[in-house]
Amino acid sequence: MKKFSLLVIALLVLGMVLVSCGEPAEEPTPVEEVAPAEEPAEEPAEEPAEEPAEEPAEEPAEEPAEEPAEEPAEEPAEEPAEEPAEEPAEEPGETEGAAPAAQVGWCSNTDIVFFPGGSPGGPFAQVVYNGAVAAAADLGANVEYVWSDWNPEQMVTQFAEAAATQPDGIAIMGHPGDDAFQAVVDDAIAQGIIVTSQNTTLPQLEAKYASGGFGYVGAELYSAGYALGAEAVSRFGLGDGDKAMVWGLLAQAGRGQRTQGVIDALEEAGLTVDYLEIDDATNADASAGIPTFVGYVSANPDVKLVVTDHGALTSTLETYMDTAGLGPDDVFGAGFDLSPATVEAIRGGWTDLVIDQQQWLQGYLPILQICLTNNYLFTGLHIDTGAGFAHADNIDLLADLAEAQIR
Predict the structure, then answer these.
(1) What's residue 32's pLDDT?
(2) Candidates 3.40.50.2300, 3.10.250.10, 1.10.630.10, 3.60.130.10; correct CATH number of 111-219?
(3) How confident is the model at residue 75 (pLDDT cuts 50, 70, 90)?
(4) Which of 7-16, 210-219, 287-296, 327-336 comes out lowest in average pLDDT?
């Protein structure tokens, strides 16, 4: 019994030892629960690695790249480009006073009477008229046109009638000359009317009233005539003993200077010059001169050069020669001013040389002159429009412009 009791006690002690040994072995398992070692290792590894990698990569890369690229590129590029381009273009127009000349209608408060010279539809006068019409459209001036059939006495009478209507300005053909125009021009300018001239110079009146806007637009008549005569001699190989016919307007004081220039050049080269005055009927209608031309050529079959000092007569040269029984190579033909008919005559060999005085400008620029003087007090401008020669070698360059009645 005593042994049994000892055995029981031994077993109890052994059980207690086992129990005490089993609990410490299970309690260290908190190493599995004490996953603080795992959580801190996972959280710092995941969060700091993800957040810093995403935020700095997205925000600094997107925001700095977008904001500086958009704002400086859009604002500076648009504002400086718009403001300097608009403001400097507008401000000088308001402050300097020159920009109104670029505006349509800046001369709309100006009334003008304009003399084209001949009759409506005439080969020369129509081109002058076209230039004046273009100027009126461009500048806005109010223009009345007075046709004179190239009659000097009629021009003086019509000028006095025009001045009585009290326009701001009158643009006149100078054919009557200084003496014939002196009294009526003096009276018009005394009334405050601006007067300027075209086609034929009025040197005394221009010198007297240039400061008040009296100018001139046209060829220098004597030098233009002389240049045509000298070029004809050189181009056609003419010389001593050759005969030339000059059909012109010596009887008109100022206008006759061009005819005189032609005669002087030919005579200095040794040619014999037969001069014919253009009568009033032929001056108004070139076809009226056909009998005169035919009669002269029939009586002078040895004539080698014909010079017509008149745009309308020059445009009729082919008709004159054909009616007289001449061919395009029988006589040299020279004259003044381009027209569609003259272009075709040059192409066909009927007309060999023409000096071009660019008569469209003789319409446009006098209107501009009066507008400039009336609105901005500009003085008279003296403009030589007699530029050069037209002939078979260059006529194709000018043909379309002549057809459009600009050249």
Answers:
(1) 40
(2) 3.40.50.2300
(3) very low
(4) 7-16
Distance CA 144, CA 404 (A): 23
Task: Give the pLDDT mean for 353-373.
Answer: 97
Q: Is the per-residue pLDDT at 60 higher than 50?
A: no
Give the pLDDT band of residue 236 (cuts 50, 70, 90): very high
SS (H, E, C) the chain: CHHHHHHHHHHHHHHHHHHHHHHHHHCCCHHHHCHHHHHHHHHHHHHHHHHHHHHHHHHHHHHHHHHHHHHHHHHHHHHHHHHHHHHHHHHHHHHCCCHHHHCCCCCCCCEEEECCCCCCCCCCHHHHHHHHHHHHHHHCCEEEECCCCCCHHHHHHHHHHHHCCCCCEEEEECCCCHHHHHHHHHHHHHCCCEEEEECCCCHHHHHHHHHHCCCEEECCHHHHHHHHHHHHHHHHCCCCCCEEEEEECCCCCCCHHHHHHHHHHHHHCCCEEEEEECCHHHHHCHHHHHHHHHHHHHHCCCEEEEEECCHHHHCCHHHHHHHCCCCCCCCEEEEECCCHHHHHHHHHCCCCEEEECCCCHHHHHHHHHHHHHHHHCCCCCEEECCCEEECCCCHHHHHHHHHCCCC
pLDDT at 11: 61
| Paired strand residues for 390 | 354
Q: Over range 137-148, report the average pLDDT.
A: 98
Contacts (Cβ under 8 Å, ≥6 apart) of 219: 258, 355, 357, 384, 385, 386
Please state, as a whole number, how many other Cβ atoms lie within 10 Å of the Cβ of residue 387. 14
Residue 58 pLDDT greater than 70, yes or no:
no
Tell the CATH superfamily of the 222-356 domain.
Response regulator (3.40.50.2300)
The per-residue b/e assignment along 4-37, b for 16 or more CB within 10 angstroms, e otherwise, is eeeeeeeeeeeeeeeeeeeeeeeeeeeeeeeeee
Per-residue pLDDT reduced to its tens digit, 238-265: 999 999 999 999 999 889 999 999 999 9
pTM above 0.70, yes or no: yes
